[in-house]
């Protein structure tokens, strides 16, 4: 026959075994947590928070001018002017607006000229003249045969 739990004078029973189990689980949890805190202190990691900067960050606005072998000039994959146009008024006007916008937003405008290896050198000079008219000085060059 099964033994009944002991009852106190008021007729209620009090079981201590589940209480010991819960306390033991809580103890193991806090022991494991304490071990993790020690590991975090050893690693010296910092959580993300407010960024401290020494000065203003510079943002670059890079524009790509491509010149194909036929003399067609494109700014960010949009064709400008005709291949025979030496003055390039559309490109010049667009570059001037970009330069004004970069001055107003305090960003640095960088232009990369990607020229086809068979493009005429004269066409590259036309693009440089348009950049000079727009007062853009940060210019880099590259040659590509993947048009």
What report would you give on this structure?
It is built from three helices and five strands. The chain has a five-stranded mixed sheet with strand order 3-2-1-4-5, covered by helices on one side. It is an alpha/beta fold and 147 residues long. It has a domain at 60-144: 2-Layer Sandwich (Nucleotidyltransferase, domain 5), CATH 3.30.420. The mean pLDDT is 82. The protein starts with 16 loop residues before the first helix and ends with a strand. The protein is rod-shaped, with a radius of gyration of 36 Å. Helix 2 crosses helix 3. It has helices spanning 17-43, 89-104, 121-133, and strands at 60-67, 73-75, 78-80, 108-116, 139-144.
Strand elements, count: 5
The CATH architecture name of one domain reads 2-Layer Sandwich
Q: What oligomerization state is this entry in? A: single chain
CATH class category label of one domain: Alpha Beta
- Shape verdict: rod-shaped
Q: How many DSSP helices? A: 3
CATH topology (fold) name of one domain: Nucleotidyltransferase, domain 5
Strand order, largest beta sheet: 3-2-1-4-5
Q: Kindly state the mean pLDDT as a whole number?
A: 82
What's the story with the biggest beta sheet?
A: 5 strands, mixed
Structural class: alpha/beta
Low-pLDDT windows of residues: none
Share of residues in helices: 25-40%
In whole angstroms, the N-to-C terminal distance is 93 Å
Strand content: 15-25%
Rg from Cα: 36 Å
What is the succession of H and E elements?
A: HEEEHEHE
Q: Can you lay out the helices and strands and say which pair or pack?
A:
Blueprint: H1 17-43, E1 60-67, E2 73-75, E3 78-80, H2 89-104, E4 108-116, H3 121-133, E5 139-144
Parallel strand pairs: 1-4, 4-5
Antiparallel strand pairs: 1-2, 2-3
């Amino acid at each position: 026959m099964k033994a009944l739990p002991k009852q106190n004078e008021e007729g209620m029973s009090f079981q201590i075994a589940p209480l010991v189990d819960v306390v033991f689980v809580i103890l193991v949890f806090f022991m494991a947590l304490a071990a993790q805190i020690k590991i975090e202190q050893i690693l010296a990691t910092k959580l993300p928070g407010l960024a401290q900067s020494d000065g203003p960050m510079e943002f670059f606005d890079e524009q790509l001018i491509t010149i194909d072998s036929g003399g067609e000039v494109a700014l960010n994959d949009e064709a400008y002017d005709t291949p025979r146009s030496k003055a390039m008024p559309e490109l010049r006007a667009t570059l001037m607006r970009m330069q004004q916008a970069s001055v107003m937003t305090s960003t640095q405008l960088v232009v990369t000229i990607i020229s086809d290896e068979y493009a005429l050198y004269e066409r590259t000079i036309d693009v440089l003249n348009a950049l000079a008219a727009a007062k853009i000085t940060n210019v880099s060059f590259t040659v590509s045969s993947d048009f």
